[in-house]
Amino acid sequence: MAIKQRAKADASFSMSSMTDIVFLLLIFFLVTSTLINPNALKLLLPKSTNQISAKQQVSVSIKHYQEKNTFSYHINGKSTPVKFGDIEPALQKLLMESEDPTFSIYADKSVPIEQVVNLMNIGKRNKYKVILATSPE
C-alpha cells in the first residue's frame, strides 16, 4: 500500500483583497485632500514675551461694550472717544512730520478681529508701522 502525500503548498495569492484596500485608500486620500485649504496663510503672530525695537508715537485703544455691542476708539489714552471716521485724519495729523511713523493698537480681549483689522488697514493705506500691543505672560 503506497500512500501518496501532497507536501507541496499552493503558491497562488489572491490579489483581489489587496486591490480593494488600495482602492479604498485612494478614495480616502482624494476626499481628504480636497478638505485641505491650499490658500491658508502662515502668519507670524506677535508674542508677548518679545520686545519690539520700534517706539510707538501714537496709540489707538479700542474698548468693547458688550452689553450694547458697541466700540469706542481713543487716541493716546484720552478719555474722550473718537469716531472711527475721524481716526485716520487724526493719525495723519499726529504722524505727519514723523520720520518713521508708528502707532500701536490696544484692544480688549473681547474686541472682534475685524475691528483690529480696520485699524491695520488705516496703517497700510498711510504706510505706517503698526504694533499690536499685548500683555506680558
Task: Please tell me what the overall shape is.
Answer: rod-shaped
CATH architecture of the domain at 58-132: 2-Layer Sandwich
Mean pLDDT: 78
What is the third-level CATH name, the topology of the domain at 58-132? Nucleotidyltransferase, domain 5
CATH class descriptor name of the domain at 58-132: Alpha Beta
Give unreliable regions as ranges: 37-47
Describe this entry's structure for a reader.
With 137 residues, the chain is an alpha/beta fold. It has a domain of 75 residues: Nucleotidyltransferase, domain 5 (2-Layer Sandwich). It has a 4-stranded mixed sheet, covered by helices on one side. It is rod-shaped, with a radius of gyration of 31 Å. The relative contact order is 0.15. About 8% of the residues have low confidence.
Structure keywords:
Nucleotidyltransferase, domain 5; alpha/beta; rod-shaped; 4 strands; 137 residues
Would you kindly provide a brief summary of this structure?
This protein is of the alpha/beta class.
Topology:
Layout: H1 16-35, E1 58-65, E2 70-75, H2 87-94, E3 102-107, H3 113-125, E4 129-132
Parallel strand pairs: 1-3, 3-4
Antiparallel strand pairs: 1-2
